[in-house]
Amino acid sequence: MFGWSSADFPIGPADIFSLFSVQGREISGAYNLNPQQKEMGVPPHWMVYFKADDADASAAQAAQLGATIAVPPMDVFDFGRMYVARDPGGAHFSVWQPKQHKGAGVIGEHNTFCWAELNTRVPEEAKAFYTALFGWTTRPHTMPGYTIWGAGGKDWGGILTMDEQWGQIPSHWAVYFSVADCGASIEKANSLGGKVCVPPFEAPGVGTITCINDPAGATFYMIQLKSAMS
Predict the structure, then answer these.
(1) Which residues contact 39 (CB under 8 A, 6 or more apart)?
(2) pLDDT tens-digit map of 70-100
(3) CATH fold label, 113-225
(4) Hey, how many other C-beta atoms are within 10 angstroms of the C-beta on 151?
(5) In whole angstroms, how far apart are CA 116 and each of 32, 99, 173, 190, 218?
(6) pTM of the full predicted structure?
(7) Cα(70)–Cα(160) distance, rounded to whole angstroms?
């Protein structure tokens, strides 16, 4: 779909972790849902990771702020240390304390991750939680119901307020991949077994956006930007 290459690493008797890269730069990974996740009905999905200097301290603070720690801090070989949490609105996220693996080596280029978006029914609780935990900033967007996340002086994500049109879909973090041509990328996704779940639409001043379900059912967004994100 995106021209990535992959390298497989064993993580158990029968499981592997696939590390994706583009032009030698690592960008993301994939692994099989474990039996416990399958029993709990966890669907295939993309997970966002946020960097922390100390995963244990971050997990403790997240719990104090109202999060549920779904997976306590643990070492991932010598790559890093991580935990998984559910925020007060029900959206899951992961936190990564880098060791040998520093995280994504490229962001914002075509065919790579470019934006993270929290879809939630409790935007004010989300703002309070994440700004306290990570020190992020927020500012309103011109689009009603949308807020921009900022860190280090750069916009990097957003909050979209979910309404009744979302039905029973739970709060969640969504990932966006930048593409040069949204129409051509949709055709390619369809040819590879993907399915459009949100037809392409114009976000004023931003670009053309569509939402795709991959053949396994994991959802991601593609965006053809009008200009590069800051």
Answers:
(1) none
(2) 999 999 989 999 999 999 999 999 999 999 9
(3) 2,3-Dihydroxybiphenyl 1,2-Dioxygenase; domain 1 (3.10.180)
(4) 14
(5) 22, 23, 7, 23, 15
(6) 0.94
(7) 23
